[in-house]
Amino acid sequence: MAKVISMINLKGGVGKTSTIIALAEFLTYQQNKSVLVVDLDPQTNATVALIGEEEWKKRNNKGKTLLQLFKDKLDKTEKFSLTDSIVKNVSNINGGINKLDLLPSSLELIDIQDKLPLISAGRFFATSPVTILRDAISDIIEEYEYVLIDCPPNLGIITLNGILISNYFLIPSIPDILSTYGIPQILNRISDFANETNINIQPLGIIISMYRTNSRLHNTTIKVLNSKFASKEYPRIFNTIVPLSTKTAEASDHEATVNTIKQKYGYGGYFDVYDSLTKELLSYVD
């Protein structure tokens, strides 16, 4: 059975996309798992990192992204093709990683996301704006062992489409005040949504990213997060901490072709960090 994991933080720039890309690549390359990345974020960072900007432009112009799926519901058309839209064997590692697929996003999702709540629920309320993704991909989810969903930095309709089909959600966060401020809102909103829609979704944990060893604020915030976990206010804090480095951003550059995952992440111990993070993730869901 596929494990579907949404990744969300209400603040951008917290390492969400770089973490999801690394997890996807390590799950496939190192752990031999089949993975589908669903990029719901209109920023399209995961998409561009996995297939490159030129390939994304071609697909976007041909309606082969998630934009077309949501536009179909607004325009009452049926142009979206799931088969044509899924990109097989993506990544800049050795021309692509076997069993790592992508359902790409589009910048133009920004233009339509505010219109989605206005979509009619259909006859007899059989569908709603939050079931669009589920209705489109439910038939192929079980072809994968893991589905990783990169959610927008908000709790709007597009994010809820991802949450609806998820078994778990992850919160990547810089250990500072602004990045952790929205954690209670995430936990409460998803809990309320789960109760209302009768879905079973669990918080998998908080991943500390972009950590600065010598930052008193970062170290203090980590202590606060762990105390909130101990008091059962927050979910677990992952033991593996992802340090800050400009190399993390470079790892998301699709044009920087590399031959192996070790070559891509081997700098400064990052290979060991993401390898440990992936194994820790597997220990919580397998």
Count of helical stretches: 14
Average pLDDT taken over every residue? 92
Main sheet: strands, sense, barrel: 6 strands, parallel
The tally of beta strands, per DSSP, is 6
Please list the strands of the largest sheet in the order they lie side by side.
Answer: 3-2-4-1-5-6
- Dominant shape: globular
Order of helices and strands: EHEHHHHEHHEHEHHEHHHH
Percent in helix: 40-55%
Q: Low-confidence parts, pLDDT < 50 over ≥5 residues?
A: none
Gyration radius (Cα, Å) is 18 Å
Distance separating the two termini: 11 Å
Give a nutshell description of this structure:
This protein is an alpha/beta fold and 286 residues long.
Protein described:
- The protein has 286 residues and is of the alpha/beta class.
- It is 43% helix and 11% strand.
- The longest helix is centred in the C-terminal third of the chain and has 16 residues, at 270-285.
- The chain is globular, with a radius of gyration of 18 Å.
Structural key phrases:
single chain, 286 residues, alpha/beta, 6-stranded parallel β-sheet, globular
Walk me through the topology.
Layout: E1 3-7, H1 16-29, E2 35-39, H2 45-51, H3 53-61, H4 66-75, H5 82-85, E3 100-103, H6 109-112, H7 132-137, E4 146-150, H8 157-164, E5 168-173, H9 177-180, H10 183-197, E6 202-208, H11 216-230, H12 246-250, H13 261-265, H14 270-285
Parallel strand pairs: 1-4, 1-5, 2-3, 2-4, 5-6
Helix pairs in contact: 1-2, 1-14, 2-3
